[in-house]
Amino acid sequence: MALRTSAANTHKARRSLLWRLHIDAPLLLGLLALMAFSLLVVYSAGGESLALVERQVIRFGAGLVIMLLLAQVAPRTLKEWAPLFFVVGIGFLLAVLFFGESSKGAQRWIDVGVRFQPSEIMKLAVPIMVAAYLADKALPPSFKHLVISLALVIAPTVLIMIQPDLGTSLLIAASGFFVIFFAGLRWRYILGALGIGMILAPIMWYFTMEEYQKGRVLTFLNPESDPLGSGYHIIQSQIAIGSGGIYGKGWLNGTQSQLEFLPERHTDFIFAVLGEEFGLIGIIILLALYLFVIWRGLYISLQGQDSFSRLLGAALTLTFFVYLFVNIGMVSGLLPVVGLPLPLISYGGTSIVTLMASFGILMSIQTHRRLHSA
Amino acid sequence: MLKRREAIKDVGRETSMFFVRCVIALGIVIGLMIFLLVREFKLQVVDHKKYQTQSENNRIRVQPIAPVRGLIYDQTGQLLAQNRSIFALEIVPEQVDNMQDTVSRLREMFDITDEQVDKFLEQVKFRPKFNSYAIKTNLNEEEVAVFSANQHFFPGVSVEARLERYYPPGASLVHVLGRMGAITQEDLIRMDEKDLAENKEVGTTRQRYAATGKMGKLGLERNYEDRLHGEVGSEKVETDVRGRIVRVLERQEPQAGDDLHLYLHLGLQRKITELMQEKGVRGAVVAVEPSTGGVLAMVSQPAYDPNIFTGGISNKDYQKLLTPERPLYNRAVQGTYPPASTIKPHLAFLGLKEGVITPNTRIADPGWFSLPNNDHRYRDWKAWGHGATVDVMQAIVESCDTFFYDLSVRIGINRIYEGMTQFGFGQKTGIDIVEEKVGIMPSRTWKKSARGEPWYNGDTVNIGIGQGFWTVTPLQLANATAVLANDGIRFNLQLVKEFAQGNRFEANTPVMAYHQIDTGDGSWLDLVKDSMKKVTEPPRGTARSAFDDAEYIAAGKTGTAQVKSIAQDEEYDATKIAEKFHDNALFIGYAPFEQPKIALAVMMENAGGGGSNAAPLARQIMDYYLLEALQLNQKGEQANHEESNDGAAN
User: Fold this and answer.
1) Domain contains B44
2) Number of structural domains, chain A?
3) Which positions in chain A touch B130 (Cβ < 8 Å)?
4) What is the domain range of residue A83?
5) Which of the four, A27, A165, A225, B575, has the lowest number of CB atoms within 10 Å?
6) For the segment B239-274, what is each residue's pLDDT rounded down to a tens digit?
7) B26, B34, B37, B43: best mutation site toward chain A, by most A Cβ within 10 Å?
8) Are the CB atoms for A307 and A372 separated by under 8 Å?
9) DSSP string of B118-156?
10) Does residue B11 fall inside a structural domain?
11) Where are the transmembrane segments (chain A) (predicted)?
12) Would you say B549 is a known binding-site residue?
């Protein structure tokens, strides 16, 4: 069956091989292009350290392996395992809350043979669970189904928010919400939620946000108020991007990054290095690559065979966009500082593995279609 | 099961709705990406200039470069002060893994005191870790070699060379050249005040010193700080966020300070120092060139080696300098002593000039003097007196006290004050050393304000023999002697003859070039000078034995200053009183008598009589200068050659 599908879609034997491996070539090309770009910028931002590049290559390799493995898992299987996956994830989150290890003032890690962040699992488990739940329901979802799916999103979000890890909880909330959105959430609910959000925002500000989170927002609104403290990151990254101009200062020639004025330049603020060294042209290329990946993700989702595949694929794709939008917005001074990496470009982080896993799911959706759906 | 579900679900509607949602999502994604691009366009195109400037300001720093300090030479071209590389053992903290271990291993190899370690660790604690800090300074060549051989055991440790002031003559010139010291907060404030006084923008001088760590604290180093220092250079450098220099972009070379060429004769200075050390005396000798006011030698003993201050003096070494002999004290410039009989020639000149006495005025000297209606006897040093017909010449030659008691009362304090001021007493000599003291030229006004008492006639009597309230510096005494030698012309004493910037020489022009005393037809001065000549000659001169067989004719005057007042009937007996109350021995003189080349003042603390102690020293100094130094000078090139050979042999 798979063979015939491939024959219908392609004219090259090579592609059929990729198809059998459950790989979507355009998506893979887009990802590889982003990875290549990442290595280039990491090499420069890391002070021309080959060791750093090497570790990034290893991480990308691991990500590609995970992607390949998940691509072999049929969406049906994923859907069947979704409840267990979700419950175990919630269990880990609770465990973190009570027995977790702290680092940098947040309790995010747990050690079960391997040390890992359960919140990373939830980045996948939440959209999978919500998609699995809604896939069998009549869509757009009824009010009851909506409330249940919202509960599935909010429970892990709150657990992660109190670790506290604002960035990840935001992403998880977004991924869950996107599933509901693609399931046909009525516009009046969306508008209503926005209205409630506006009312809730000041209440959250006073009752639930941590001091450092408030500080970030305040600094974002007026970075010059604290140029050497928390405003420093934002000011320096804007100087880096702005001084890059249209063509950039050239690879390895960004003074802001090479002379270390830019903090966290190979991790969360790598976009500023890219903007400084490759200029507006480099940024346009990066955004074009991202757009291509997103387009491909939505395209694959549209061709999804069942509701589960479609909802999950589209939600994962949009979550990927949230990543890059929040990061670029933060580094460019449009959004408050939230600790999110630039997807597939920033050095390190477990996020590469999680992201590649979600692309593996997209590839699985693409390559496990039955003939009639082609 | 699947079929039943599909019956409930409206798959067609779901699919089309999902398509719409995807299109909307893609639209939102593209819209937000355009929003991001607009933002980047604003940063990178619209505000590019602004951010580019900020980025340049971030990385580019202009840093000052210290100029090389001017050198100091004597009149024969000998180097008195130079800049020498000194080697210091320095550590860059961020390159050292285990500081404790490194320091203790270094201490096994080198002699590093606890004080030095503490000072070093203190610096490391509070300053940037990428800079280099000295743990031991003044490494000798052997230590440098030892470290070089073991350098690979000490990552982050290195031997660094720095320019520091070095004074080849050492202790013999410290009271002329002075010394350098670290720039303090007070110095910085003084710089600002100077800027204000000179109508410059405040901070101008600080800028000049931006790269300089030390400045002149005493002597010539202090007085000519402005000229010696030079002009600061600058370097435009690219630095990283911690201020570490990445590369040099531009460089403006500093301009070295002016060199100083002195009137001073190093050979003479050394000779005097040696002679005084041989005799083991404390005191000062100042020798000047009468025709210019240039200081040929200025010795204050005891002294100390200024080079021990280089690289920071240890507390222990500094304590050693705080002895009762006070080596830190510059006696030539700051010491104020009673001039004793050395000012008798000047008083005699004043008496003749004021018409109080004539060359033929004679007095009878019973060995004492008393004021009318007062039975207090002012005693002559010669208990039985100098005879019944003492004239002014005999009074100078034999240093008759009674004659001068009488003379000073006749002149009166007001005219003495004015007359002696003309010789520079109670005034700055104008020497180019700011620490100069002026001593006391007493007057009625001075006593009223300083002591709150009126002037008594008895005070005037003591003035006649240079005692009482009158104090002078050895510098003033030498200058007043030069005035006699120079027919009444008083120069501002100067150590520096000219400044040099490369090959450009510039004469040192003192503020007030000279002052001419009214000497009438010259006969008063001639009489005084003839008398001073007889002082060094038989049969009666007080310095006749000191100048026995001299190859030139010298003029002079001895002086013996009482340090402790002696009761009316008490005899001065050196064996019975503490050394510090022994008489000070003094001598002034010049030679050759015609066309004088050297005028000097010798002041020896607690050394006894001037004729027997100070005069022989003066003779040796004059012998050296007139018979050796000047002869050598005339030989020119050859002289330099021999001196340098001497230096090498030593």
Assistant:
1) no
2) 1
3) none
4) 2-373
5) B575
6) 887 777 788 888 999 999 999 999 999 999 999 999
7) B43
8) no
9) HHHHHHHHHS-TTS-EEEEEEE-HHHHHHHHHHGGG-TT
10) no
11) 21-45, 81-100, 143-162, 168-185, 190-208, 278-299, 311-338, 344-365
12) no
